Amino acid sequence: MDLEQIISWIANLIQIGSVVFTAVSLWRARQALTHYLEARKTEMSARPWALIIGLGSDIQGQVQAYLQDQKLDMPIEPYTRKGFVTAEDFYPILKDIMTIKDKLTQAGATEVHLFYKGPITMATAIGAATDNWVPIKVYEYTKGTYQLTCVLEKETVKGLLAGDALAAGEAILTNPRG
Q1: Closest among 52, 55, 49, 177 to 121, alpha carbons compared
Q2: Rounded Cα distance, 132 and 92, in Å
Q3: What is the Cα–Cα distance from 176 to 138, expressed in whole angstroms?
Q4: Fold (topology level) of 1-178
Q5: Cβ proximity of 110 and 48 under 8 Å
Q6: Local structure of 83: helix, strand or coil
Q7: Which among 154, 120, 125 has a CA at the least distance from the CA of 137?
Q8: Sorting pLDDT into bands at 50, 70 and 90, what band is 172?
Q9: How far apart are CA 109 and CA 104, in angstroms?
Q10: Where are the domains positioned within the chain?
Q11: Measured CA distances, 136 to 103, 111, 147, 171 (Å)
Q12: 137 with 148: CB under 8 angstroms?
């Protein structure tokens, strides 16, 4: 065996090791996120609120049924804008959302359970408007029911990795349902 073949074998072993290390790291991050979401599902702060935003249609009935089924007893703050939502509607809607945020802050909300139906661009704007507020538990409607998909903690998205990685400011976004 000449030097070139030895280097080739070493390079192949390093590549295989890198793939295995990456796969294990991603699997562990996914497991950590899944455990974190499960723990946060059962945790409830002192004054939780459900914020129901339906842009284009009303989802309040669905959400109320879900909250009753899950035995989640909390005040509800609905916001509905029926019909087609255009880009010109975004700023007035965002202003209304900011008014609701102020109202919930005045009421002493300690966490918000967010149920949203509408344009993804508006969801991004709502996320920016509620950044660094209270923990927001975001629910997604899939397979005929709502599922907690992420928790936007105050100041940062926590719980995605082990504590030492969070301290370093690292984050990996994964899909907890696979």
Answers
A1: 55
A2: 22
A3: 13
A4: Rossmann fold (3.40.50)
A5: yes
A6: coil
A7: 154
A8: very low
A9: 5
A10: 1-178
A11: 16, 6, 14, 18
A12: yes
**pLDDT tens digits for range 51-109:** 999 999 999 999 999 999 988 899 999 999 998 988 899 999 999 999 999 999 999 99
Q: How far apart are CA 45 and CA 23, in angstroms?
A: 35
Q: Would you say residue 163 has pLDDT above 60?
A: no
| Distance (Å, whole) CA 147 – CA 138 | 8
**Phi/psi at 134 (nearest 5 deg)?**
-120, 165
- CB environment 107-117: b (16+ within 10 A), e (fewer): eebebbbbbbb
Question: Is 162 in contact with 32 (CB distance < 8 Å)?
Answer: yes
Amino acid present at 130: T
* Mean pLDDT for the chain overall: 84
Instruction: Round to whole Å and give the CA distance between 114 and 133.
Output: 13
Q: Which residues, including other chains, have CB under 8 Å from residue 145's CB and lie 6 or more apart? A: 66
The two structure tokens encoding residue 85: 């939502």
pTM above 0.70, yes or no: no
